Amino acid sequence: MPELPDLEVFAANLQKRFKSKTLETLEVKVAKKLNVSIQELKNTLEGHQLEKVSRSGKTLQLHFKNEAVLGLHLMLHGELRPLNPDEEVKFQIVSFHFKGGDGFALCDFQKQATPTLNPELSEVPDALALNEGYLRELLGKKKVQIKTLLMDQQLIRGIGNTYADEILWEAKISPFSIAKFIPESAVNELLRAINHVLCKETVDIGKKLCEALNGEVKDFLRVHRSDLSKSPTGAEIQIEKKGARKTYFTDEQLLYTV
DNA sequence: ACGCGTGTTACTGT
DNA sequence: GACAGTAACACGCG
């Protein structure tokens, strides 16, 4: 259940561990979300060298030397696990066995994690590739709550429930603010917060996880955490439910509704 | 035991 | 068309 910073770290660690290795066997256990046949996937990727691993929005991307790309979306519960020769990995969706014996699997007990061969590249900007003009124009025409906008993958890719709260706290904007009423100075602050929060978390989580391919790190979150009652600056953290998700915020954040 | 859950999609209703 | 709310997916975890 990773968000953007975690995925950044996993991508880097996958690359460190498997770059330049040749994919010997690819095993598909669950194909219901796969966009091509198992055979086509195997034919396309087996025997080819892994060149690079990147993150785009909420997907990991495995780039192979033959130009093929495999996108992996972990959804809510997906996780990467190193392969262990002694025991079968549980809840496997697909596994990658590299020449030399090392490998990893994508697992998801809920079977929602999604591998996609050669995903279409998106027009929607990644959260770490936003420019001020785009964000200002986007916010100016939307009357949704700002948190909803930040999490809308059709508008900005990569921000989920946790980091939307973290970013909005950093920017001192209430998650319930209506996008079009947020003044220009606050939009600038929001852009700064998006970059700052996501980059800082990537560094911190990277240090904590070291070479790991999975694991949840909440240590560096400042408001979206059930074990905290106050923000770093001492304000009481408030929690509001929106459907199945929770929003964490404080009254340090300004509400723009007109 | 019971409630919770870092996501997406489909569908309803205003 | 824009937007809000809900269920379903399917099961481990504390």
Describe, in plain words, how this protein is organized in 3D.
The protein has helices at 4-18, 38-45, 132-140, 146-151, 161-171, 184-209; strands spanning 23-28, 50-56, 59-64, 69-73, 79-82, 92-98, 103-107, 114-117, 238-242, 245-249. The protein is of the alpha+beta class and 258 residues long. It has two domains: 4-117, N-terminal domain of MutM-like DNA repair proteins (Alpha-Beta Barrel); 127-249, Orthogonal Bundle (Helicase, Ruva Protein, domain 3), CATH 1.10.8.50. Helix 1 (4-18) packs across helix 6 (184-209), helix 3 packs across helix 6 and helix 5 crosses helix 6 (184-209). The mean pLDDT is 93. It binds a DNA duplex (14 and 14 nucleotides) through helix 5.
Which short descriptors sum up this protein?
single chain; four-stranded antiparallel beta sheet; N-terminal domain of MutM-like DNA repair proteins; DNA-binding; alpha+beta; Helicase, Ruva Protein, domain 3; 2 domains; 6 helices; 258 residues
Shape: elongated
Mean pLDDT score, rounded? 93
What name is given to the CATH topology of the largest domain? Helicase, Ruva Protein, domain 3
For the record, the count of structural domains works out to 2
Strand content: 15-25%
Oligomeric state of this protein: single chain
Spatial extent as radius of gyration: 20 Å
Element string (H = helix, E = strand): HEHEEEEEEEHHHHEE
The major sheet is characterized as: 4 strands, antiparallel
Helix and strand composition category:
alpha+beta
Q: In which range does the helix fraction lie?
A: 25-40%
Number of helices: 6
Low-confidence stretches: none
Distance between the termini: 36 Å
What's the total number of strands? 10
**Spatial sequence of strands, sheet with the most strands:** 1-6-7-5
**CATH classification class of the largest domain:** Mainly Alpha
